[in-house]
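Fold this complex.
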Amino acid sequence: MPIKNIFRSIIGLSALLLVQAPAFAATPPPAMVCESCHGTAGLGTPNLSPMLAGMDKDYLVEQINHFKNGNRKNPLMSAMAMTLATPEAVEQVATFFASLPAPVINDIEKRGDNVIITDPARKLVYQGDWSRNIPACATCHGPSGLGVAHFPRLASQHADYITSQLTAWQSKQRSGDHNNVMATIAQQLTASEIQHLAQYFAAIK
Amino acid sequence: MKTLSLILGAGLLLSTFANAEANLPDRQTELPAHAKAASSEYLVPRDLATIPDSEFGNKVKLGYSLFVNSQPMRGQYVGNEQNCANCHMQAGMKANSAPLWGAFMAYPAYRKKNDKVNTYAERIQGCFKYSMNGVAPAVDSPELVALTAYSYWLAMGGLLDKYDMQSTPIPEMSDTVVQLGGKADSFVLPEKIAAALPVEQRNKLAGRGYPKLAKSAETPSIERGEIVYKQTCASCHGAEGQGLKQDGVQSFPPLWGKDSFNWGAGMHRVNTAAYFIYENMPLGKSIQLSNQEAWDVAAFMNSHERPQDPRFTGDLKANQEQYHNHQGYYGKSVNGKVLGEHAFPVKAVD
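Structure:
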């Protein structure tokens, strides 16, 4: 390719990027339908929809697919997920919400930072209860429940959503977790533990 | 099995006692494996919330903290991305997951070969050198004092409760006595426990170590193990065995590579890894894999390069012959590469 053409290509490419740049920052068309419930900032709404902002992209892809294939059951979300007809659309939506900022947590708590923990929910989060084979939630969901790769963030998630999901694991309305690990753990939790865990994570801000 | 228990991590006491830099001899010998006992026999340590607010209690608390998050010791004593609790589930409390209470009561241990004794503190030094690919803290360092105090607290609380002394506080003992371990004649147990648990029986607590897994029908296969790994393990430990790390915190441990345990650690043995995996993985589930799958995936995990055996002095063959007469791939050729030849550095600390 002659030098001149290379330059022309570069200029052309740059121009293309410049033109497209604002489009990346804005909501991609397939995600517009999501915003009506999850909000333009992806922060969700109590008693309606979970926070998606800052979630791991692969996790979001997986969950949309779970709604499509029936591993997760929710009439509204199943229908909405079906509107994302192609893997590309699913990817685009997940990438968009993953890129939105989640609330910043400043003082993160790691396992071992505290030994004497009196709040039962917090104790489950950092120490688990192995008499029932429940590992510390923080083992997989990270310090302060910030999430670890495809193990979703729980910090500042809406309490009603965490409650409904733990309950869904118990009633087998939700599945598709790797090795059935989360379902197994959720089965062990009491209703009151679920309530307290949900409130605990929601309060991490 | 008796032999395995006897040769447990023995080493030199002598003048090297407090010298963390000395070359620790063949300490990381095989973990004991036992037939699985009925769960009712296992010691159950007391709730962490009962740790007293005292000087002793503070040592126990520090021990717990360092055990579940060992990374504050990174660069000083720890040379990789491992935490003690990665191999000892439930913060070292869980039966059949090499619980600290079981190990504590098994030391000091004698080694027939050279008739030397290894204290409990020295056994933990071995963990730093091998599993943590680091440099062992001195016996009298705050870290080692804390880890031994925590182990003692787990063991004593479990014993007191088992022998119906739930309201008896855990006796405070001097660091020196605690660091020897619970199998010393000088380690005084309440009369009732001492009568039920004579010194020579203390290394046989139910649930100690990892339970022995019957041999697989077919020789462990790296190839079959790779399939098991991809299906069952990779979502937590990564496609390349690197584990999962986020926000600067390694949540799931690397299983091989530069940040994993080294070629001297117990877990590089295929049998030890198979016992551990079968009993404890996936996290929170236990016993999901078949016997054959556990052996195969243990073989796969241990057929990758990792940090060098700290006892290596330049001659791979000699090191293999001296220290690797067990089921493992050190010094063996896998996919055209001899493992150990391209090992990552040891003691990756300041």
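The CA atoms of residues 132 and 188 of chain A lie 7 Å apart.
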